[in-house]
Fold this sequence. Notes:
Shape of chain A: rod-shaped
CATH topology of the largest domain in chain A: Heat Shock Protein 90
CATH topology of the largest domain in chain B: Rossmann fold
Strand content of chain A: 5-15%
Low-confidence stretches of chain A: 1-6, 392-396, 438-443
Shape of chain B: elongated
Helix content of chain B: 40-55%
Number of domains of chain A: 2
Oligomer: heterodimer
Helix content of chain A: over 70%
CATH superfamily of the largest domain in chain B: Response regulator
Distance between the termini of chain A: 29 Å
Mean pLDDT of chain B: 84
Radius of gyration of chain B: 29 Å
Number of helices of chain A: 14
Distance between the termini of chain B: 84 Å
CATH architecture of the largest domain in chain B: 3-Layer(aba) Sandwich
Order of helices and strands of chain B: HEHEHEHEEHEHEHEHEHEHEEH
Strand content of chain B: 15-25%
Structural class of chain B: alpha/beta
Radius of gyration of chain A: 51 Å
CATH architecture of the largest domain in chain A: 2-Layer Sandwich
Strand order of the largest sheet of chain A: 2-4-5-7-6
Amino acid sequence: MKKIRFGINFTETLSVQSRILLTTILTSVIISVTNLFLFTNINSVIERINRAYMSNVVINNLHDSLVKVNSSMSEYLNTKSSDAMEEYFKNEQEYTNILSEIDTVSNGEETAVLSKNIRNLSLSYMEYSDAAVQARRGHIIEKYRDFYSDAERIYGYINSYIYCLNNEQFAYNTKTHGALVSTFRTLETISLAVLVIMSVINVVLIYLFTRNIMDPVKERELVMETHIKDAELKYLEAQINPHFLFNTLNAGAQLAMMEGADRTSEYIQKMAEFYRYKIHGGSQETTLAKEITLIDNYIYILNVRFSGEIHFEKNINEALINIEMPDMILQPIVENAVNYGIRDSENEGLIKMRVYGSDKDVVVSIQDNGVGMSEERIKQILDNESVASERPDSNGVGLRNVISRLELYYGRRDILTINSEGEGKGTEVCIYLPRENVQDNAG
Amino acid sequence: MKNKVRVLSLIAYAAFIMVLLGSLGFLVYFKIKVNAAINDTQAETIPERHYAFICEDDSDQFYKAVYDAAKKEGAENGVYVEFFGKDLSEEYDKNERMEIAIAAKVDGIILEGDESIKTTNLINKADFKGIPVVTMGADNTGSDRKSYIGASFYNMGQLYGNEILSDFPLGEEAGDTEDTEKEIKQIMIFVNQNENDAYQNIIISGIQETINKAGRSDEFNIVTKAINGKLNFEAEETISEFISTTEKLPEAIVCLNQVNTTCVYQALIDHNRVGETFVYGYYLDDSILSAINRKIVAATAAIDAKKMGQYCVQALDEYISDGFVSEYMPVDIQFININNTGRFIVERAKNEEDQIRY
């Protein structure tokens, strides 16, 4: 099990390219080896089937050759021509050569004995035929007739034996052929089964090696990570060096304290807390309470900057603020409300924050009394269409970014709503944090 | 989710390894199967020595039994004994087979002998070519055969005679009065017309002399009837015709081979003449044994075929290794009648695996 886990972990550590490459090579090797294996076996059986009747071919060749020897001997005895004699010796040599193959065709004791008899009868036959030829050359008429007669008789016996051996071999070869064909059928079935099994294994292996590439959970995490990184990058770019700033601010706060400038000290303290929030350790999750504290600090800083122009009202159900949520959600919304809602408004700026519970969700409502939004604009933001009027000088994190992160985090689309009764009538952004999800995450 | 993936991985890896092992196993199984199907990868080697077994009639059960015993004995001693020419498409007679065996340069010949000159010449030709010949069943005394393996036919004749005498007791024993004129009983002996050999005559002499010695020569008249066993089905036709057409069958019929014995008892059954004659047979097989039990055949002479087969191979082996062998190796004869069939039934059952036949 450990090894298998290691195998899976090993593939998980590889890059996507390597995984695809490894998968392709492995499956190709498996299919190639399988095919090679099947191909070799099928070839070997076909070759055997082709050779099944080889022994009959050898026996028939032997018979044909014997006929040639006998007829060329008769021809010589009849005509005494040198051509016929030459032909006789040539045929005799050929017959001797084929005779040496006869031992290889036996498949049992009985056929081996038949082969042996044929070989020895052939030797006797050639002794008589040679003697007949020699006697004819020497004009010993009585002798060559006797030898010829003996040779003819043995020739008949050999033919009988060849016929018998051929029959025996044919019966045996037919049986062998049948067995081979049956083996071939089995091989076909098994080959098909092996191919199917190998294909299924290949599919499983491909799935195992490539599943991480296509895993939607992983994909969501990756996109979310990219968004966070993007947000952080923008944030860091804007703040140059939060660590440095944070330390510097702390030093400033202490200095102000020593000099008795309490308000300055408090201001710097709040700023330090604001920045500390962002360098709390890289976690992407926080609690609603911390997010609210961040908003408090942010509003305080803005009010110092803008001489208390922004009124901030909170109506919070304290029982609900410990639920977990992605960080850096509320601050960009408040920043948006300040920058695009209140700043351009004639009215005295007011931001209301409410936290209350519904059946399934914890609702965080951030409402301003600014310029408001048109239906069209709200639709653009929610549908992620390019927002042309977004100010390029804004250093805030875009509302769209917040929506994307919430959707990715909670895996649903109706996580945030924007309500505005129209131009000049303010805007309300509501975030619905699922209680179930929060509990799961907490668990 | 992860556990599911792990289980799936485990199954996939296990299946992969199993298929690999399975394929390997299949490869081995496949090779074995193909090799089993094709047993000709190596040329078969035959034993060192090769003897030809030649008898007059291939269908004779007695000589088949002798051959089986000889083959078994040979197999145990590195000899292949071939029932020569039996499986050839053309039928060759005994002398032609002898010629083929000589031309095929066998290492030895076991031959059912006869006293013909042609056989003598062939045995001498084989001997001249360095092929030792032993005769079995019947001898060829004038040849250069190395040994004769068979029963003593004179003894056999005596045993037939004794059996006949006991089946036809003296008049007193039968309860007849001395005044009754003795009826002459005919003993018909079916002899093989083609067998130019002395053994039939020796048997007949043995029967005659036994009767003479018993002082009952005036009671019996021995006649012979020639049967041509060479032509196919001739023996059966001749015997059947004789049984069906002869008004009064001879008191005793003696058959000197297995085929004649079987033909006689079958003809008696077919023509409903069982009980009209005493039949004395030759050889013992299941049907003859059954015929004895049904009292169709009175008795049969059985030569120990197993011993005969063994002795033939042993004689040739001995001659090839030592250069000499005993001229005569006797084989036991037993007579089986209704009184001792039980013993033979038990023995045959016991020795069935050894293919022992009498």
